Amino acid sequence: MPELPEVEIIKRGLDRLIVGRKIATIEPLVQRSFPGFSAEVESIIVGSAICSVARRGKLLLVGLDSEHSLLIHLRMTGQLVYRQADYNGQMSSSNDSFGGGHPNASLIKDLPDKTTRVIFSFTDDSRLYFNDQRKFGYIKLVRNSDLDDDSFIRKLGPEPLAGDFTWHVLKERLPKKSTRAIKAALLDQCVVAGIGNIYADESLFAAGIHPTRPVVSLSDDEIERLHGAICCCLRQSIADGGSTARNYVDSQGMRGEYLELHAQVFNRSGQVCARCGHPIDKIRVAGRGTHVCSKCQK
Fold it and tell me: Active-site residue among 11, 58, 127, 183?
């Protein structure tokens, strides 16, 4: 599943390419990919212009001028592929195409294909395809006034890259007196929005905190270090184009380089720690594969 940096990068590509375009038709090809779709929903979407693209945690919010928003969750294998009418089969840095998400051939081949679930056609004959091989992702329409009450959004914790996300906020969000492992807490989207397996591992390594440590055992100094590590890792990954990790590429179909250039522990089990030379271990925390240097992280 994409984490905050990967979704942020796709958001930026969408914002550049589709804002201002007017929707001519929508074709939901698979019902579960657009739950709640109806003739009424179609009437709201068709004729609307896209006025904004935003992100909340791992969720994309495409704002329409009809006072509604399309909520898009890519889950494990979702893609958003934009094509101009004269698309020639080549990704470029111009405005004629982009593909963001699961890196299979659907990013560049003729669409729709067998993974296409929803098609948005714009009045200039360009299209936005929502492809999803495993059909775990979804799109739904929500009135803007109801966004805060959406069942997914209302449970989300604070945005870790927002200006008001201080280490004191992180301390308040962590469950007090909890014996829960700190990694499990970071993966909980109610605590902080957008952190998944990759950035939990990397942030904990950068902060020198073992992922199995109970939340209650963390000192203020450790929480402050963890806060700084979270912000640093997320910003670095965005600058690197995200972390592909087999599943995600950016809004021009390019693989992110964070794992290759800057990741210290994730997917590096058996390799030596760059900081101390101790082998990196892979353990399980909260049911997830977890990468840790047991010498650097206490």
Answer: 58
Return the SS3 of 158: coil
CATH 1.20.1440.60 fits 167-292, yes or no: no
Specify whether domain 4-155 bears CATH 3.40.50.2020. no
Indicate where the chain has its CATH 3.20.190.10 domain(s). 4-155
Q: What is the mean pLDDT of the chain?
A: 91
Residue with tokens 């659907």: 106
Q: Of the candidates 283, 297, 286, 291, which has an alpha carbon nearest to the alpha carbon of residue 178? A: 286
**CA–CA separation, 179 and 204 (whole Å):** 17
Q: Which residue(s) pair with 62 in the sheet?
A: 53, 70
28 is catalytic: no
Q: Is 288 a catalytic residue?
A: yes
Residue with tokens 């994309």: 60
pLDDT beyond 70 at 6: yes
Domain with CATH 1.10.8.50 in the chain: 167-292
Local structure of 95: helix, strand or coil: coil
Whole-number pLDDT of residue 97: 75
Choosing from 2, 103, 158, 160, the catalytic residue is 2
Crossing angle for the helix pair 197-207 and 220-239, to the nearest 10 degrees: 130
pTM over 0.90: no
